[in-house]
Amino acid sequence: MFDSLSERLSGVFDSLTGRGALSEKDVDAALREIRVALLEADVALPAVKDFTSKVREKAIGEDVIRSVSPGQQVIKIVHDGLVDLLGGEGEPEGLNLTGEPPVAILMAGLQGSGKTTTTAKLAKRISEREKKKVLVASLDTRRPAAMEQLAQMAEKASVACLPIVKGQSAVEIAKRAMSAGRLQGYDVVILDTAGRTSIDEEMMGEAARIADVARPRETLLVADSLTGQDAVETAKRFDERLKLTGLVLTRMDGDGRGGAALSMRWVTGLPIKFLGVSEKVDGLDAFDAKRLAGRILG
Ligand code: GDP
Hints:
The chain is α/β, with parallel strands linked by helices.
């Protein structure tokens, strides 16, 4: 479909080997290729501009190590810059589940983003890896099918799901989930909020009222990485209204190059905590900045 950035840059730099330092002209030629590659990977334009100007500063005047071609060297600068932008090389920021149990996690996102699936995946991960007792609850009062779907996925994940009681409001269900959590000794309660097709005031107001009741330690936005710039806009809007603590990007097993992830991080400054990598209940990976940088570079 497209040449990898590495191949393109080797092309630009083939004629330049043997020089002492990268000149402005060399770097600018490379930056043009980098810009196109990032845009093709679905990174938002302002993020691309900001990023390339930082790379320019760093690359100009940099000595070309003899054993490495200038192309490889610029790729390394770009790669390291991407890793930095994505949150650095260290261990990904995990979940903050400290405090008086039950600790609540609020899941937010548009309908179809993979929110319910991610709720079950996360519940499984926390119960298996952290040996915590986890309860999930669907607050999607408008779509009974969504409640049923969470119950089924929770069963697959071998975690408890709050029984469905018809006629309760989302806030009432949140209260019930938290008190069941307290009375039945759960460590973590994951609340799957209603998804809408677009962000509206009612949705945001409801989410804020739920947050008041549950006092979540984590509020995670689930966004579909394949929707590219729409996902970035969604992240921005949600972050303005809810106090998000992190992002989960789904469908990273799809064809996308992952640029939306970088844009979302750049726009919101929020850590990407997990990536959804399949439809299955164990298809959730901890975020790895280096791996994603490699994927964006192609
Ligand atoms: P919700 O409306 O946001 O709750 O979305 P769902 O959890 O119902 O997910 C919508 C569809 O996306 C379902 O068919 C899921 O199986 C699928 N899905 C969710 N996450 C992933 C993922 O990481 N990879 C893939 N390939 N499919 C996913």
